[in-house]
Amino acid sequence: MVKKIYIANDHAAVDLKNILVDYLKSKGIEVINLGTDTKDSVHYPEYAKKLAQKILSDEEALGILMCGTGIGMSISINRYKGIRAALCYNEYTAKMARAHNNANVLVMGGRVVGPELAKSIVDTFLDGEFEGGRHQIRIDMIDELVE
Length: 147
Ligand code: RB5
What we know:
By secondary structure, this protein is of the alpha/beta class. It has helices at 14-26, 44-56, 71-77, 91-99, 115-127, 134-145, and strands at residues 4-9, 30-33, 62-67, 85-87, 105-109. The longest helix has 13 residues, at 14-26. It is globular. The relative contact order is 0.17. The protein binds D-ribose (RB5).
């Protein structure tokens, strides 16, 4: 089980972020909160950038990133080479994001998934294991797409 998680969010996911911070801490995981803590409107790419910089500076790191839908955050953070961010709405996508895509960032929509589903998605993501093999070849190909 991972020991440390970076988490970031915009104003649309403050409530879900707080719930997940408490949940992760209750599991003994260190949580580094890089997100906004108020409902005042902010620009989500700034928070995607903060999370990307942390994940890229720590090869073992995993992150959780949230906005209203998860779409803006996933578009933003996937601009960074070495970031593999997966927008997940259920446990199956979270499982496959780790198994096939070796995702290092889980993205969720704070206006889309409820707290209990989000916890279950997080658990599935953290428990997941990359299968390697042909999937590593494809991941290497993704990095070659970045110019
Ligand atoms: C903010 O209103 C909203 O646009 C943002 O949280 C996110 O859903 C964008 O993709």
